[in-house]
């Protein structure tokens, strides 16, 4: 018997109890303990049935993912579950908290399942680039049918107990003391003469191949590039086409293909990185946080309204400040429209809409926000405008209030220095749409207090965001790296590539859209204004490519004007436009550039390698503390494909020396203006190391 699993008896009921805090993960000790305890219960003639229950706040919440890297010790989970399922005495799983992944697979290996009403179950392995590898794809379909199994396992979501009962995953929802209820359930089984019931013996309801083919088609675009969803479909299909044991063999084969894939390695990296990113290096874990019970947002535009929604979604009262009634009314109307659209999709109720709207108080007066705990400025991206706002906030807000700027590029220190309390000032860069995007790029200023940093990182999680802490520089981490890709994309087009070729290369790599499609969607005029601000500040590119500015000067601002780099007949679908093609050729001729055919590989390298190089500089400068901070920012804010693990992780996979070699090649071809490898990149490449060796 293991230290983490114990066996006791209550009358004729054997009680198997798992105690492996914090989440009762299925490590080797737990697996061994389950095997031993089941065998003990079977060998004891006085035991007529068994109950499997867990101590602490949850049932078995999954495998011990740390074992994946070092290999799973014996006994394996599959034979442990198999021994339970074929046991001659009924076994009841008693579920509270969450039964996830291997935890649910263990519960499915039991003959019966009872759960508290608050419990949730699920098979989330898809988020790690894996499939349930201990029978989940074979047993669950036998209970719930093909369509539900596909939705549950490919979706990887959690199912509340009520829904689990409806689907047949659990047999009864119980109240009061779970242990007593589960024992009572087992005793009733005995009293009724009900014996073991193995899911493996259930014949699944017939499902034709069209069920699986149609489901695959339905997810094809959303799951593009990911292996796991499509392997899961194959494995579930096996449950309907093969005997149980053959289906298990198919599941194992597909699981191992995923386990050894680069896609799963990348997704597992992101899984751990998203948990690590919340820990700010150098910040004491016991730093006392400031209380945030109410907030305010300055600016009721698209970003400001979206930010206000984050407060309301978390149940936090927020005041929304504008200077003119018409702008305020427009902002509130847009918020309501967004909530009502969400309600129409069934994600929230209309009652939820009204509750959240009630938490958002519109105002035209700074005096109304004087007592809030945090203010987030979301006005026009102009330094002079933001300075004026912060001077006003400094004069009206209470001492200790956190003053945050939603700036995406501007110097947070310069903003902070117009106040008498720079220690209270921080950047909180939300991504559009702010009520949807998960990333929150938090920017610590030179004088930002530790308790402000700790508070904002905690607040990020509270409002459902993944917060990453970075330092002050032009564009911070995300936009600073994006600038490299944007510049090279423009150069490549000027040199002979078409915008659609550049976009296709980036799309095929895994981005949700290409550089120019994204620029059109965001509004070309936005980028134009940023470039103008940079030029005014003396930040002149060594090579000035003006063709995209000329596109804007034609009144083509992107999708909103039905014309940008592309034209849009339906407002959404980009169509190459001969007008832009001719304009680009003219600009190239004026610049003395002879256009040529450019390979897809050159496009990929020139768009992505400068991003990696800039990431190396960012690490050198301490703007980002770790490569994982950069990866999380790009995965969650810029659409870098999750199955490649983020730019710095991907760079390690392809080899840093290959990037340095490419830099030498392009320095000869394009000149060395932008093709000098960062010292850190060159050093790591020479040593045969990667960024994650730091």
Mean pLDDT: 95
Name given to the CATH architecture of the largest domain: Alpha-Beta Complex
Low-confidence stretches: none
* CATH class category of the largest domain: Alpha Beta
Shape, per Cα inertia axes: globular
User: How many strand segments?
Assistant: 17
Strand % is 5-15%
- Percent helix, as a range, is 40-55%
Gyration radius, rounded: 29 Å
Account of the 3D structure:
By secondary structure, the chain is α/β, with parallel strands linked by helices. The protein has three domains: 255 residues, 2-enoyl-CoA Hydratase, Chain A, domain 1 (Alpha-Beta Complex); 176 residues, NAD(P)-binding Rossmann-like Domain (Rossmann fold); 132 residues, N-(1-d-carboxylethyl)-l-norvaline Dehydrogenase, domain 2, CATH 1.10.1040.50. Helices cover 49% and strands 11% of the residues. The strands form three sheets. It has an eight-stranded mixed beta sheet, with helices on both faces. It has a six-stranded mixed beta sheet with strand order 1-2-3-4-6-9, sandwiched between helices. A three-stranded mixed beta sheet has the order 5-7-8. β16, α18 and β17 form a beta-alpha-beta unit. α9 runs antiparallel to α10 and α14 packs antiparallel against α15. The chain is globular. 46% of the residues are buried. The mean pLDDT is 95.
């Amino acid at each position: 018997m293991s230290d983490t699993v114990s066996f006791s008896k209550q009358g004729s009921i054997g009680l198997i109890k798992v105690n492996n805090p914090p989440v009762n993960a299925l490590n080797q000790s737990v697996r061994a303990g389950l095997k031993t305890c089941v065998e003990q219960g079977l060998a004891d003639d006085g035991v007529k049935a068994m109950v499997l229950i867990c101590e602490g706040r949850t049932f078995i919440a999954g495998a011990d993912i740390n074992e994946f890297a070092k290999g799973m010790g014996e006994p394996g989970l599959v034979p442990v579950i198999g021994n339970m399922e074929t046991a001659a005495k009924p076994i009841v799983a008693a579920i509270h908290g969450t039964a996830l992944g291997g935890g649910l697979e263990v519960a499915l290996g039991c003959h019966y399942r009872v759960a508290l009403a608050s419990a949730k179950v699920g098979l989330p392995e898809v988020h790690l680039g894996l499939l349930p590898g201990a029978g989940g794809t074979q047993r669950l379909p036998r209970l719930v049918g093909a369509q539900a199994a596909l939705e549950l396992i490919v979706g990887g979501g959690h199912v509340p107990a009520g829904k689990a009962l409806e689907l047949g995953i659990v047999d009864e929802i119980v109240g009061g003391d779970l242990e007593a209820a589960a024992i009572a359930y087992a005793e009733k089984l005995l009293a009724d003469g009900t014996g073991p019931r193995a899911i493996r013996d259930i014949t699944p309801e017939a499902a034709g191949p069209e069920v699986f083919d149609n489901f695959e088609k339905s997810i094809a675009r959303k799951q593009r590039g990911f292996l796991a969803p499509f392997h899961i479909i194959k494995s579930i299909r096996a449950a309907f086409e093969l005997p149980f044991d053959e289906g298990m063999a198919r599941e194992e084969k597909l699981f191992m293909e995923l386990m050894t894939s680069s896609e799963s390695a990348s997704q597992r990296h992101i899984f751990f990185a998203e948990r690590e990113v919340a820990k700010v290096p150098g910040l004491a874990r016991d730093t006392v946080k400031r209380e945030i019970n109410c907030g305010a947002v300055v600016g009721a535009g698209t970003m400001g309204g979206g930010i206000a929604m984050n407060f309301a979604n978390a149940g936090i009262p927020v005041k929304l400040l504008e200077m003119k009634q018409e702008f305020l009314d427009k902002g509130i109307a847009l918020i309501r429209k967004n909530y009502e659209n969400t309600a129409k999709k069934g994600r929230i109720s209309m009652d939820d809409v009204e509750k959240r709207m009630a938490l958002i108080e519109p105002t035209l007066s700074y005096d109304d926000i004087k007592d809030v705990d945090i203010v987030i400025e979301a006005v026009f991206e102009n330094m002079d405008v933001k300075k004026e706002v912060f001077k006003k906030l400094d004069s009206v807000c209470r001492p200790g209030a956190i003053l945050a700027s939603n700036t995406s590029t501007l110097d947070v220190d310069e903003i902070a220095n117009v106040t008498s309390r720079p220690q209270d000032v921080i950047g909180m860069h939300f991504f559009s749409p702010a009520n949807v995007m998960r990333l929150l790029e938090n920017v610590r200023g030179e004088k930002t207090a530790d308790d402000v940093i700790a508070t904002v990182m905690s607040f990020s999680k509270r409002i459902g965001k993944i917060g990453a802490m970075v330092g002050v520089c032009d564009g911070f981490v995300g936009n600073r790296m994006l600038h490299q890709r944007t510049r090279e994309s423009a150069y490549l087009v000027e040199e002979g590539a078409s915008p659609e070729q550049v976009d296709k290369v980036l799309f095929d790599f895994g981005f949700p859209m290409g550089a120019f499609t994204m620029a059109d969607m965001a509004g070309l005029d936005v980028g134009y204004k940023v470039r103008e601000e940079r030029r005014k500040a003396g930040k002149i590119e060594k090579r000035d490519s003006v063709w995209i500015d000329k596109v804007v000067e034609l009144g083509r601002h992107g999708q909103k004007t039905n014309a940008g780099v592309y034209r849009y007949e339906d407002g959404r679908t980009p169509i190459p436009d001969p007008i832009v093609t001719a304009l680009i050729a003219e600009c190239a001729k004026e610049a003395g550039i002879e256009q040529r055919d450019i390979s897809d590989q050159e496009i990929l390298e020139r768009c992505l390698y400068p991003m990696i190089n800039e990431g190396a500089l960012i690490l050198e400068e301490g703007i980002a503390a770790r490569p994982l901070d950069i990866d999380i920012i790009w995965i969650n804010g810029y659409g870098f494909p999750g199955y490649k693990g983020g730019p710095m992780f991907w760079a390690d996979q392809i080899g840093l020396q290959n990037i340095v070699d490419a830099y030498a090649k392009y320095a000869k071809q394009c000149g060395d203006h932008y093709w000098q490898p960062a010292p850190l990149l060159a050093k790591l490449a020479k040593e045969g190391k990667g960024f994650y060796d730091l």
